[in-house]
Amino acid sequence: MSGTFVRVCGLSELEEDTPKRVELDGTPISVVHTEGEVFAINDICSHANVSLSEGEVDDCHIECWLHGSRFDLRSGKPDSLPATRPVPVYPVKIEGDDVLVSLSQES
Ligand code: FES
């Protein structure tokens, strides 16, 4: 169902800089409202099976709480070791209070 946007939560449910974990078709996603935008990034760190939504958000990055790699919410790329592989990011649309995410990775 790539390209199909599906509602994952309400915009008003998101606290600024506090990731929210949701699931879409069995895919865990961390939804983050920061710097006036909403981002959706796969919730599993590319280094080990750890939930990124338990980490901190700063400067448009989400930090893995276990070893501290920081992933760019726009690209999914890590900017610090030990992670070397990007985490998938997903396009987001806002419609009223609805946050919609598409599992397609083309933004
Ligand atoms: S598990 Fe995320 S950086 Fe190691």
TrEMBL record:
<keyword id="KW-0408">Iron</keyword>
<dbReference type="Pfam" id="PF00355">
    <property type="entry name" value="Rieske"/>
</dbReference>
<protein>
    <submittedName>
        <fullName>Non-heme iron oxygenase ferredoxin subunit</fullName>
    </submittedName>
</protein>
<dbReference type="InterPro" id="IPR017941">
    <property type="entry name" value="Rieske_2Fe-2S"/>
</dbReference>
<feature type="domain" description="Rieske">
    <location>
        <begin position="6"/>
        <end position="101"/>
    </location>
</feature>
<keyword id="KW-0001">2Fe-2S</keyword>
<keyword id="KW-0411">Iron-sulfur</keyword>
<keyword id="KW-0479">Metal-binding</keyword>
<dbReference type="InterPro" id="IPR036922">
    <property type="entry name" value="Rieske_2Fe-2S_sf"/>
</dbReference>
